[in-house]
Amino acid sequence: MEQGNQGVMVAKLMPQQQNPIEQLQARFKELEAGFRGWLAKQSLPVEAAVVTATSAAQGAAIGGFMGTLTNDVSSSIPTPPPQAASLNPQAMASFKQAQALAGGPLVQARNFAVMTGVNAGISCVMKRLRGKEDVQSR
Protein backbone atom coordinates (compact mmCIF):
# COMPACT_ATOMS: atom_id res chain seq x y z
CA MET A 1 0.00 0.00 0.00
CA GLU A 2 2.87 2.33 0.69
CA GLN A 3 4.13 1.98 -2.86
CA GLY A 4 0.69 2.87 -4.22
CA ASN A 5 0.64 6.08 -2.16
CA GLN A 6 4.13 7.03 -3.31
CA GLY A 7 3.09 6.60 -6.93
CA VAL A 8 0.13 8.88 -6.38
CA MET A 9 2.32 11.50 -4.74
CA VAL A 10 4.81 11.43 -7.62
CA ALA A 11 1.96 11.88 -10.09
CA LYS A 12 0.66 14.85 -8.11
CA LEU A 13 4.10 16.46 -7.85
CA MET A 14 4.74 16.38 -11.61
CA PRO A 15 3.58 19.61 -13.27
CA GLN A 16 0.78 19.38 -15.78
CA GLN A 17 2.12 19.61 -19.31
CA GLN A 18 0.42 22.38 -21.30
CA ASN A 19 -0.49 22.08 -24.90
CA PRO A 20 2.35 23.58 -27.02
CA ILE A 21 -0.16 25.72 -28.90
CA GLU A 22 -1.48 27.12 -25.62
CA GLN A 23 2.09 27.87 -24.53
CA LEU A 24 2.72 29.68 -27.82
CA GLN A 25 -0.50 31.67 -27.46
CA ALA A 26 0.36 32.63 -23.88
CA ARG A 27 3.86 33.75 -24.91
CA PHE A 28 2.42 35.79 -27.80
CA LYS A 29 -0.05 37.47 -25.44
CA GLU A 30 2.81 38.34 -23.05
CA LEU A 31 4.84 39.85 -25.89
CA GLU A 32 1.83 41.79 -27.17
CA ALA A 33 1.05 43.15 -23.70
CA GLY A 34 4.66 44.21 -23.24
CA PHE A 35 4.72 45.90 -26.65
CA ARG A 36 1.44 47.71 -25.96
CA GLY A 37 2.75 48.84 -22.57
CA TRP A 38 5.92 50.20 -24.15
CA LEU A 39 3.93 51.87 -26.90
CA ALA A 40 1.58 53.56 -24.42
CA LYS A 41 4.58 55.27 -22.78
CA GLN A 42 5.75 56.82 -26.06
CA SER A 43 4.94 60.28 -27.38
CA LEU A 44 2.13 60.71 -29.90
CA PRO A 45 4.36 60.98 -33.00
CA VAL A 46 6.34 57.87 -32.05
CA GLU A 47 3.19 55.88 -31.27
CA ALA A 48 1.55 56.97 -34.53
CA ALA A 49 4.65 56.09 -36.56
CA VAL A 50 5.07 52.65 -34.96
CA VAL A 51 1.37 51.78 -35.27
CA THR A 52 1.30 52.94 -38.89
CA ALA A 53 4.42 50.95 -39.79
CA THR A 54 3.32 47.74 -38.08
CA SER A 55 -0.17 47.93 -39.58
CA ALA A 56 1.28 48.66 -43.01
CA ALA A 57 3.48 45.56 -42.70
CA GLN A 58 0.46 43.47 -41.75
CA GLY A 59 -1.51 44.96 -44.65
CA ALA A 60 1.32 44.21 -47.06
CA ALA A 61 1.39 40.58 -45.94
CA ILE A 62 -2.38 40.27 -46.32
CA GLY A 63 -2.33 42.03 -49.68
CA GLY A 64 0.47 39.84 -50.98
CA PHE A 65 -1.44 36.75 -49.91
CA MET A 66 -4.66 38.02 -51.50
CA GLY A 67 -2.77 38.89 -54.67
CA THR A 68 -1.54 35.33 -55.00
CA LEU A 69 -5.08 33.99 -54.64
CA THR A 70 -6.58 36.16 -57.37
CA ASN A 71 -5.61 36.20 -61.00
CA ASP A 72 -4.08 39.31 -62.51
CA VAL A 73 -7.18 40.93 -63.99
CA SER A 74 -5.37 44.05 -65.21
CA SER A 75 -5.21 42.59 -68.72
CA SER A 76 -9.00 42.12 -68.78
CA ILE A 77 -9.68 45.75 -67.83
CA PRO A 78 -9.63 47.91 -70.93
CA THR A 79 -7.65 51.12 -71.03
CA PRO A 80 -9.81 54.23 -70.96
CA PRO A 81 -10.36 55.87 -74.33
CA PRO A 82 -8.72 59.25 -74.98
CA GLN A 83 -12.10 60.97 -74.86
CA ALA A 84 -12.68 59.58 -71.34
CA ALA A 85 -13.12 63.06 -69.92
CA SER A 86 -16.53 63.23 -71.60
CA LEU A 87 -17.72 60.05 -69.87
CA ASN A 88 -20.04 59.99 -66.89
CA PRO A 89 -18.08 60.83 -63.68
CA GLN A 90 -19.65 57.85 -61.90
CA ALA A 91 -18.46 55.54 -64.66
CA MET A 92 -14.93 56.93 -64.38
CA ALA A 93 -14.98 56.49 -60.59
CA SER A 94 -16.09 52.89 -61.02
CA PHE A 95 -13.35 52.34 -63.59
CA LYS A 96 -10.70 53.75 -61.22
CA GLN A 97 -11.93 51.44 -58.44
CA ALA A 98 -11.63 48.45 -60.75
CA GLN A 99 -8.09 49.47 -61.65
CA ALA A 100 -7.19 49.75 -57.95
CA LEU A 101 -8.20 46.13 -57.39
CA ALA A 102 -6.28 44.89 -60.42
CA GLY A 103 -2.68 43.80 -60.28
CA GLY A 104 -0.44 41.08 -59.01
CA PRO A 105 0.69 40.32 -55.49
CA LEU A 106 3.07 43.29 -55.25
CA VAL A 107 0.40 45.77 -56.33
CA GLN A 108 -2.09 44.26 -53.90
CA ALA A 109 0.52 44.29 -51.12
CA ARG A 110 1.22 47.98 -51.75
CA ASN A 111 -2.48 48.88 -51.83
CA PHE A 112 -3.31 46.95 -48.66
CA ALA A 113 -0.24 48.35 -46.88
CA VAL A 114 -1.21 51.93 -47.65
CA MET A 115 -4.85 51.51 -46.70
CA THR A 116 -4.28 49.63 -43.44
CA GLY A 117 -1.33 51.79 -42.41
CA VAL A 118 -3.18 55.06 -42.95
CA ASN A 119 -6.30 53.73 -41.23
CA ALA A 120 -4.36 52.56 -38.18
CA GLY A 121 -2.31 55.75 -37.97
CA ILE A 122 -5.35 58.01 -38.08
CA SER A 123 -7.22 55.82 -35.59
CA CYS A 124 -4.23 55.88 -33.23
CA VAL A 125 -3.92 59.66 -33.34
CA MET A 126 -7.66 60.16 -32.88
CA LYS A 127 -7.73 57.71 -29.97
CA ARG A 128 -4.85 59.53 -28.24
CA LEU A 129 -6.38 62.96 -28.83
CA ARG A 130 -9.91 62.01 -27.79
CA GLY A 131 -8.83 59.77 -24.93
CA LYS A 132 -11.19 56.98 -25.91
CA GLU A 133 -11.63 54.35 -28.59
CA ASP A 134 -13.61 55.13 -31.71
CA VAL A 135 -17.25 54.01 -31.57
CA GLN A 136 -17.03 51.97 -34.74
CA SER A 137 -13.87 50.07 -33.82
CA ARG A 138 -14.92 48.88 -30.35
TrEMBL record:
InterPro entries tied to this protein: TIM22
Name of the protein in its database record: Chloroplastic import inner membrane translocase subunit hp30-2
Pfam families: Tim17
Record keywords: Membrane, Transmembrane, Transmembrane helix
Main location: membrane
Topology in membrane: Multi-pass membrane protein
GO BP annotations listed: protein insertion into mitochondrial inner membrane; protein targeting to chloroplast
The organism's place on the tree of life at top rank: Eukaryota
Compartment(s): Membrane
